[in-house]
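We give its fold:
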Amino acid sequence: MTPEDRQYASLFIPFALSKIDNLQADGTKFVHYTTAETAMSIIQTRRVWMRNAKTMNDFSEIEHGKRCLFPAYKDEAIGGRLRAFMNNIYPNFSQRLETLFNGWLPHFEQDTYLTSLSEHDSSEDLLGRLSMWRAYCPRNGVALVISTAPFTRASDSLKAYSSPMSYLSPQHFGEEFSKLIDNLITNEQTVRTYSEDKLLGSVFTMFKFAILCTKHPGFAEEREWRILYSPTQELSPVIESGFATVQGIPQEIYKIPLTNDPENGLFQADIPNLLQRIIIGPTQQPFTIWRAFRNYPPLI
């Protein structure tokens, strides 16, 4: 990141910035738990699917984010300070923000596509994480351990964005949101350098990710990161649309190409650079699956 990028992130997405710094300092990798069939498809097609957020395993995910953000924003002791601060810089700012966000909220609820990854420690290289096998692939499971390099670059060329999940109760969310507002107020001189449109976009994006990337604390052991795509809001030049039937449900999907395309925000995203290790999970055919991945030509 440039110094300007870091300054911006420290104001509006400090949690994500700290997680990115930790990834780079610790050498942590990501892992994608899935079925052996899906893992082989990813390798063969050089594509990873993003599915609608409404199809995810926890149907209350976006609702939980709303239950965290909305009460905090309406609370005069928390959101009231943010509204007063912003309106002091640009009159009627909060009204513009609320109108803009409320107009886009149905799109974020119905038209957000994502794929999920999990932080992976070297101690999990041999067996993976039991809770993840149970939740996502209890039979014929495979874990694709991948490099974090493509996910930690500051680029909006792809129009899809990676973000860590925060695991917060509404009360804890309010406390963290209050700290973020304190930080903005402390850095008022810097905030005032942003144009009204840039500041509006920044707070809007902050609210969007608060809803889409806040989960119940009960899921904390997943240590999830997401790649998020909102095609209605920003259409990518390289992400492909398509249709597929998943577990008997026909649905629209979007596919990220796994290739190097720096001009479109893809860096070190090809299979040889991205894929670090494959862990064979619970299955009655471990040797057959191991042999298939070991002998598949691109992996030799």
Summary: Residues 3-299 form one domain. Residues 93-110 form the longest helix (18 residues). Residues 2 and 182 are 24 Å apart (CA to CA). The radius of gyration is 20 Å.
